[in-house]
Specification:
There is one protein chain. About 10% of the residues lie in helices and about 35% in strands. The protein is mainly beta. The protein is elongated, with a radius of gyration of 26 Å. It contains 4 helices and 13 strands. The two termini are about 30 Å apart. A hairpin with a 2-residue loop joins strand 6 and strand 7. A 6-stranded antiparallel sheet has the order 1-6-7-10-11-13. Strands 9-8-12 form a 3-stranded mixed sheet. It has 2 domains: about 120 residues; about 70 residues, no CATH class.
Length: about 260
C-alpha cells in the first residue's frame, strides 16, 4: 500500500494424501472394483504403453504376439507374454498439489484482479481420445503422428484397415493432467463522485471481465484435448480423473458491464 496504490494477494495451497489401508476382505486388493491397498481411491489400472514396435524389433514383437507398428506395452511381470497379469497402476487422479493465487490492484478509481490456478501431478483418462482412436474409415481425416516405416515414431500405432481400435488402444488415453489456468481477470473503473452527481447518480462503475483467457496443459496443447480439469463423475465407483465426451470444451467468456447506483 503506497499512497493511492494498493496491492493485496491471497495464496491457497493444498496437498492431499490418501490411501486405502484395508478393505472388506482385509488387506487384499479388489481389482474388479479398482481398489488397491496403499493406493488412493481413484487410480488407473491398465497396460502401460512403452512405445511402438519398431522394424528392428520384429522378432521380439512376434514373440509377444504383436507385429511391427503396433503398441508395445510393458511385460510387467517379466514372464515373456502379455496378459491381464501385466496390468499395473499407472497413476492417480489425485494431484500432487493444487494452488491458487489472487492478486488485487487498485489505483485511485481503477481496480484490477487476477486469479490463477494450477493442479500438478495427477493422471487423467481422456474418453475423448477413445473416439479419436477409432481409426477405421477415417484415414483421409487422420491427423496423428502415427507409425510408418519412414516415420518410426513412438506416439501412435500404424492404422490397420481391418481394425477399428488399435490393439491395447486404451493405453493411448492416459495423459499427464497437470495444468495452469488464468481463471479470470477483472478490471474496473469508478468514475469520480462529481461526475456521478452531475448525472444525478450516487456512483458509476464500468467494468470488464474475462474467464479462462489462458490454459496451459500438455494434454490440451500437444494432444488437442478438451479440458484437463476433470471432475468426479462416479463412472469408476468413486470415479474421477476422466475427461468424458459429454463435457463441453473449455471456453473463454468476455463480459462488459456498467453499474449505475441511484
Amino acid at each position: 500500500d503506497r499512497g493511492d496504490f494498493q496491492w493485496t494477494s491471497d495464496l491457497i495451497f493444498t496437498k492431499n494424501k490418501e490411501e486405502i489401508v484395508s478393505l472388506a476382505n482385509g488387506k487384499v486388493d479388489d481389482i474388479g472394483a479398482g481398489r488397491f491397498i496403499g493406493q488412493p481411491l481413484s487410480v488407473f489400472f491398465d497396460y502401460k504403453k512403452i512405445g511402438i514396435w519398431q522394424t528392428t524389433e520384429r522378432d521380439q514383437a512376434l514373440a509377444f504376439g504383436d507385429r511391427v507398428g503396433q503398441i508395445k506395452v510393458e511385460d510387467f511381470n517379466n514372464d515373456g507374454k502379455i496378459n491381464a497379469d501385466d496390468r499395473q497402476i499407472l497413476g492417480s487422479a489425485v494431484p500432487s498439489f493444487a494452488a491458487g493465487l489472487t492478486n488485487r490492484f487498485s489505483y485511485k478509481g481503477f481496480d484490477l484482479s487476477i486469479f490463477i490456478f494450477t493442479r500438478v501431478g495427477q493422471l487423467i483418462r481422456s474418453r475423448f481420445h477413445d473416439n479419436v482412436n477409432q481409426l477405421a474409415g477415417r484415414y483421409n481425416n487422420l491427423s496423428l503422428n502415427f507409425w510408418t516405416p519412414n516415420n518410426p515414431t513412438n506416439e501412435f500405432p500404424q492404422p490397420v484397415v481391418t481394425q477399428e481400435f488399435p490393439k491395447n488402444g486404451s493405453s493411448l488415453t492416459y495423459f499427464d493432467g497437470t495444468f495452469f489456468k488464468i481463471r479470470n481477470i477483472n478490471i474496473g473503473y469508478n468514475l469520480p463522485d462529481k461526475v456521478a452527481k452531475k448525472l444525478k447518480m450516487e456512483s458509476i462503475r464500468v467494468f470488464a471481465s474475462i474467464q479462462q483467457p489462458l490454459i496451459l496443459s500438455e494434454y490440451r496443447q500437444k494432444y488437442k484435448g478438451i479440458d484437463p480439469e476433470t471432475f468426479v463423475d462416479g463412472e469408476q465407483g468413486v470415479g474421477g480423473g476422466e475427461v468424458n465426451t459429454n463435457i463441453s470444451p473449455a471456453t473463454s467468456i468476455t463480459t462488459f458491464g456498467l453499474n449505475l447506483k441511484f
